[in-house]
């Protein structure tokens, strides 16, 4: 294992804390020092309340001293994507619209996290309102990929991925509407997990596309992701789409390597446009599972090619409605130049939303407008059902599905900014998972010849996160890709 404290896993740190070989304040100080020495290069954070972080670490040590430790996450830093509400902390969604907004309450997942004793770390950069795949759509700054500072870290949870990869936090939370946890995790060489829709409360997660959004953990290992998931999963009456289901002990379950699951390999994910090195790494992973005694089954998900267009109808439609609340009247940026109240809406939104957000609002308003509703929105909803049915049919013969996470590795900053379609196509392998509401994970599965990380995606049945995490853990435990560290 790496010797630096800030590169240890939460599981290891948790045992050091329990044995009294490390204090939460020592841990926080080490990660803070690391952050100070590398973040001018990485730019993972939007804001950071150091005093509050150290205070939480101190409280954790005091609890432990009294024998009142709250469990394995007590004292472990967890950085938070700047899209989740933390009471009395800024919440910007990387938008000028919310530049001065302070959250009045805690998101449910933050509330739960606090009950585990985790140290709520800094607030992380992202694409504005989670719209993007590179973190270049942040209104404040771009985050760099720790593996190559000229490259993007992925997005929209780019800060969440980069900070863990660079040792600036032990764990982080991201959100995933079409791939925003899994794609940056793949690009930064870490684990990113999007749970089944409804497993984690969305209360306090700023809405982008409500039928697709999910919060999820990002970590160095599958075990760590399971640990963080354990802390935040579960029914919440404050989210009407939250699902009542038994939450298993993920950490226990994922150690059961005896059962050999059936793995589906969809032919549609290996066609043209996939980088040969990514294809090879995925084939190698499949071979690994075969050697371990897993059944590999060829499957088909015939509507895959429709996922990106369908997503950009549904997600933009929902975004146009969700973002209508930013009107300059209540809690947002307000234009000084308006002549009357209608002009105030126009000027406020014109000034404070970035290009990509505007593009989505316009597109979403268009597909919902009377006259086009049936042709676009309704049709997209029907195809969404077909996409989900494809998965459900496949799951009659397999337990999990393996694909690459992305068609290519991290790209250079600026490369796709002028071409939104190119940018959208980056999520081609992750988007269907959100449309179908399924759990999906990206785990480190290799490096390209230019030393950029490659991610393997594993997709599971609804609410079968334990099974999915177990399969992922088998690969993760038998490989050392996640132990490599970027040279920064
Ligand atoms: N990249 C996709 C988009 O731009 C997905 C974003 C996300 O998952 N939040 O919409």
- Strand percentage lies at 5-15%
Helical content stands at 25-40%
Q: Which fold name corresponds to the CATH topology? A: Amidase signature (AS) enzymes
Through-space gap between termini = 18 Å
| Tally of individual domains | 1
How many individual β-strands? 11
Mean pLDDT across every amino acid position: 96
Largest sheet: 11 strands, mixed
Shape: globular
Secondary-structure-based class equals: alpha/beta
Q: Work out the radius of gyration.
A: 21 Å
**CATH superfamily name?**
Amidase signature (AS) domain
Protein architecture, described:
This protein is an alpha/beta fold. It has a single domain, classed as Amidase signature (AS) domain (Amidase signature (AS) enzymes), CATH 3.90.1300.10. It is 38% helix and 12% strand. It is built from 16 helices and eleven strands. The protein has an eleven-stranded mixed beta sheet with strand order 1-3-2-4-6-5-10-11-9-7-8, sandwiched between helices. A hairpin with a 5-residue loop joins strand 10 and strand 11. Helix 2 packs antiparallel against helix 3, helix 5 runs parallel beside helix 6 and helix 10 crosses helix 13. The protein is globular. The two termini are 18 Å apart. The model has no long low-confidence stretch (mean pLDDT 96). Glutamine (GLN) binds next to loops.
Write the layout of secondary structure elements.
Elements: H1 10-18, H2 24-42, E1 45-47, H3 50-65, E2 77-81, H4 108-116, E3 119-124, H5 158-165, E4 171-176, H6 182-188, E5 191-194, E6 214-219, H7 222-232, H8 250-253, E7 262-266, H9 276-291, E8 295-299, H10 307-322, H11 341-352, H12 355-368, H13 374-394, E9 400-404, H14 420-425, H15 431-435, E10 440-447, E11 453-459, H16 465-478
Parallel strand pairs: 2-3, 2-4, 7-8, 7-9
Antiparallel strand pairs: 1-3, 4-6, 5-6, 5-10, 9-11, 10-11
Helix pairs in contact: 2-3, 5-6, 10-12, 10-13
The chain binds glutamine (GLN).
């Amino acid at each position: 294992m790496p010797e630096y404290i800030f590169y240890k896993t939460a599981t290891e740190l948790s045992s050091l804390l329990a044995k009294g070989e490390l204090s939460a304040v020592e841990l926080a100080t080490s990660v803070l020092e690391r952050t100070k020495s590398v973040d001018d290069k990485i730019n993972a954070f939007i804001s950071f309340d150091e005093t509050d972080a150290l205070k939480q670490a101190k409280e954790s040590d005091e609890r432990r001293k009294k024998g009142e430790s709250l469990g394995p996450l007590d004292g472990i830093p967890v950085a938070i994507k700047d899209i989740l509400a933390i009471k009395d902390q800024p919440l910007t969604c990387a938008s000028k619209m919310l530049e001065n907004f302070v959250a009045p309450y805690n998101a449910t997942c933050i509330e739960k996290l606090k009950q585990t004793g985790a140290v709520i770390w800094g607030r992380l950069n992202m694409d504005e309102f989670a719209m993007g795949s590179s973190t270049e759509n942040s209104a404040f700054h771009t985050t760099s990929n720790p593996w190559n500072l000229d490259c993007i870290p992925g997005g929209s949870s780019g800060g969440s991925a980069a900070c863990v990869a660079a040792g600036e936090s032990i764990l982080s939370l991201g959100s995933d509407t079409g791939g925003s946890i899994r794609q940056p995790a793949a690009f930064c060489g870490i684990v990113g997990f999007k749970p089944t829709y409804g497993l984690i409360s969305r209360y306090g997660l700023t809405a982008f596309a409500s039928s697709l959004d999910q919060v999820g953990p990002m970590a160095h290992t599958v075990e760590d992701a399971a640990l963080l998931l354990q802390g935040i999963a579960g029914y919440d009456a404050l989210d009407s789409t939250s699902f009542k289901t038994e939450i298993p002990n993920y950490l226990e379950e994922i150690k059961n390597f005896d059962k050999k699951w059936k793995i589906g390999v969809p032919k549609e994910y290996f066609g043209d446009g996939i980088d040969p090195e990514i294809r090879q790494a995925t084939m190698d992973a499949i071979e690994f599972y075969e050697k371990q005694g897993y059944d590999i089954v060829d499957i088909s998900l015939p509507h895959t090619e429709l996922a990106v267009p369908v997503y950009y109808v549904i997600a933009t439609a929902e975004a146009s409605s969700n973002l209508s609340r930013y009107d300059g009247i209540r809690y947002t940026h307000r234009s000084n130049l308006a002549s009357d109240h209608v002009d105030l809406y126009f000027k406020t939104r014109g000034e404070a939303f970035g290009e990509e957000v505007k593009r989505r609002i316009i597109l979403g308003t268009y597909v919902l407008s009377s006259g086009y509703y049936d042709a676009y929105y309704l049709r997209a909803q029907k195809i969404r059902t077909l996409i989900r049915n494809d998965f459900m049919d496949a799951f009659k013969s397999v337990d999990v599905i393996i694909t690459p996470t992305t068609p290519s590795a991290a790209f250079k900053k600026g490369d796709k900014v002028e071409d939104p379609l190119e940018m959208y196509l980056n999520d081609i392998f992750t988007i269907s998972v959100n449309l179908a509401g399924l759990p999906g994970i990206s785990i480190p599965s290799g490096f390209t010849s230019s030393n950029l990380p490659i991610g393997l995606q594993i997709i599971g049945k609804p609410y079968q996160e334990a099974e999915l995490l177990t399969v992922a853990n088998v690969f993760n435990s038998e490989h050392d890709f996640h132990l490599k560290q970027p040279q920064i």
